[in-house]
Amino acid sequence: MKTIFIISSKAGNVYPSLEDEIIALYSKTDLDFKVYVTENKNSIKEIAKKYSEEDCVIYVCGGDGSLNEAAVELVEKKASLGLIPLGTANDFSKNFDYSTFSLKDTLTPILKPCDIIQINDTFCINILSFGLDTIVLANTYRVLSKFPSLKSRAYIFGILMSIFKPFDLNLDIELNLKDGSTFKTSDLFTLGAVCNGGYYGNGFNPSKNSIVNDSTLEIILVKKLGLFRLLNLLPLYKTGNHLNSPEVLSMQVESGTIKSKDKVLANINGEIFESNEINFKILKSAINFAYLGGIKH
Fold it and tell me: Which residues form the DAGKc domain (predicted)?
């Protein structure tokens, strides 16, 4: 089986010796391998697509956005996907135990299926979120563009820039639940998240129940909140202890539709988009994944 490494050019700044270490390790084996360093914004997609029908493992050496770029090309394909977390937040990796990870682990990966979310005409391996948290992300990007040295600390400034402005979403939501029933609501919401994984936004834990290969999604909906209540809920949302709050709805779902007369600001693994309608569904065991660390749950 072939092993492909795609090193994000940004990740090279975090781990400058990575390429040399991979070559040194694999040169001592009889394994077929190839190392790529991204050259442009389409590199990851192009390389993943090139090997998608081969018997191989493609390790993305980068962050959540880079991982999702590769995942989109590998849905229901022969190739497997792996992650060496070298991004800003590395939230998807928090679903696993990378505490003892070393490059040697890539020599003998455990390959298992992983679920993925189909969202309109694209895919998401981790979390789709919408509302206030995406506004926070947009402001975080603005901070990073001016002060890149802040790295993950920029999220703090993104939060402060966002939470003091009144905000709500008027949404019509229809969900197909795991138990076969249907849930419908029309209400004002502050934010929401459709979760395959459990972490996003630099460690926020909206879904303690999510496991990436359990054949279900969890949707979290936070009803409209005033500033005081929002400030009280944020620490709970960060640690995953918000699910018993009266303003929070949590359901196990297989698919759903989120509609609004106004454009909804949403994001997939850090990629921001706008839409009046978001359709999503789980694709069970749709991607092969290299489990380098055991699932935490």
Answer: 1-122
Element containing residue 138 per DSSP (H, E):
helix 132-146
The stretches of 240-279 forming alpha helices (DSSP H) are none
Question: Does domain 2-116+288-295 fall into CATH 3.40.50.10330?
Answer: yes
> For the chain, what is the largest distance between any 2 Cα atoms, rounded to a whole number of angstroms?
61
Extended beta strands in the chain, E state: 2-7, 33-37, 56-62, 80-85, 110-119, 122-124, 127-131, 169-177, 182-195, 217-223, 248-268, 271-291
Residue 147's contacts (CB-CB under 8 Å, 6 or more residues apart) are: 154
CATH architecture of 124-284: Sandwich (2.60)
Residue spans of the chain under pLDDT 70? 12, 296-297
Return the DSSP state at 105.
G
Which residues, in sequence order, are bridge partners of residue 277? Answer: 259
Please check whether residue 82 is in contact with residue 57, taking contact to mean a CB–CB distance below 8 angstroms: yes
Q: What is the pTM of this model?
A: 0.94
Domain with CATH 3.40.50.10330 in the chain: 2-116+288-295
